Amino acid sequence: MPVRVTLDVMLARKKVRARDLAAQIGISETQMSLLRTGKVKGMRFDTLSKLCLILECQPGDLIEYDRDETDLSVED
Amino acid sequence: MSVRPLSPHAGGMILKIVVVGLTLTLITQCVVEYRTITWVMGDARANVLKVFGFWLSSILAPGFYLCALWELSNVFARMGRGDAFGPNMVRGLKSTGRCLMMGAAAALALAPSFAKWLDDNLRGFSGLHFNLDIENLTIGLIGLTLYLLARRGVALKTELEQFV
Lengths: 76, 164
Hints:
The complex is a heterodimer of chains A (76) and B (164). Chain A is mainly alpha-helical and 76 residues long. Chain A is built from five helices and two strands. In chain A, strands 1-2 form a two-stranded antiparallel ribbon. Chain B is an all-alpha fold. Chains A and B meet through helix 3 of A and loops of B.
């Protein structure tokens, strides 16, 4: 998928442990691990908001998009 | 004036009471009908089969429908307890659908076949007889729809869980 989660970079930059962040935003460590490795289908806006609040960043700092022309033809 | 919606817990309780009432009514009706059976004199085996056939033909379909209502009341009770849509809820909905389908099958094919067999004084089973009435057909299809919807619900829940 061309949308990549760059949470790891932000965690390292802000020196926050993934376990602590998971506890703060109210998700399990497993979910946090899946999120960090991009093994999720999507992220809820409320999760994104909490991450942005705690890490003091913008959504664009947590996810990146790699341009892919085939995206328009992808169906659910 | 606004009417307060019934809570799922209260709905489940009411449904259970209705099921108990309907079960008692069904048994009473069957007992009354039971007295109208014409017995075969001097043939105990035939009479035993008649009793078996009578209960099977008169109680099978409504019994399944009552089981469906009971399962549905359990689903309401779980909703009332605040259970999330999960395996237990799905199992309850699937079970409700299955009971409705089995009840419809019993009403459409089994009960008429047994009734015919009883009418013929148990002189050999003359095959399946169908009573294709709209009510039972509709109930069966609603059961099938409920069963398939519950299965679809599981797939949707699995997909939702992939969102963090």
